[in-house]
Structure of ABC transporter ATP-binding protein:
Amino acid sequence: MSVLSCQDVRVTLGGRSVLAGIDLTLAAGQVTAIVGPNGAGKSTLLACLAALRTPDSGAAHLDGQPVTAMPPRALAQRLAFLPQTPEIAWAVDARTLVGLGRIPFLGARGGGSADAAAVTQAMELAGVSEFAGRVVTSLSGGERARVLIARALAGEPEWLLADEPLSGLDPAHQLDVAGLFRVMALAGAGVVVTLHDLTMALRLADRVVVLAAGAVLADGAPVDALTPAVLRAAYGIEARVLAGAQGPIIDVVRRAG
Ligand SMILES: Nc1ncnc2c1ncn2[C@@H]1O[C@H](COP(=O)(O)OP(=O)(O)OP(=O)(O)O)[C@@H](O)[C@H]1O
């Protein structure tokens, strides 16, 4: 079973400690949600795990190898990163964009039938087959977000690190994408997502890591990590965990006094 981890990761930006020594060991086959207030360091942590940022000290490892020392192509064959605000500068059609997810696997002669099949399957899984011929810049924000999820899936990654992948999606598509993450985890992939929707974190994740001010405040099964006391300390809110029809929901009552 693949393991993605980081040890004593520290990042200082603009003279401020953004990550203050993070230790995490993430197992594949699980959905892990990283939650926490704005500026807590969630995106910075994800970037360190994906080798997109080199920490000032400490390191992230994939199966014991420092991610920043792995050849980018080898890492990209195993790990896909979905940024929070992806830019699409090219007016290409959606199928071409999703095909970019196969780049780490292409040989000198370009893609073959296996690559084409992976692209088709990724578009089906993400529910974007109907957009195949549409120019991506003409798609709505949520449609584009799902095409980018398909691009990440096209590489059939062992690890998917996604920064707020559900923001901008309507409730039905949030459920679809959450279900997709579950299917990936059941198939053995490691899925790590940052989320602001705490009820979604409760329902979607096997494990929740609560970051606040660059430190891990809680880490465990969702109902153990997202307690009223943790939410008060992390966000400064009074919240209740209620029984909903489909499982627990988090009712945010007010700011803590
Ligand atoms: N280049 C930079 N210079 C100074 N500070 C920075 C820089 N980049 C990020 N930061 C700060 O680092 C902190 C952590 O940012 P990060 O994007 O990791 O937070 P986050 O938890 O993902 O927040 P959000 O929920 O708002 O997306 C923020 O306070 C941010 O302003």
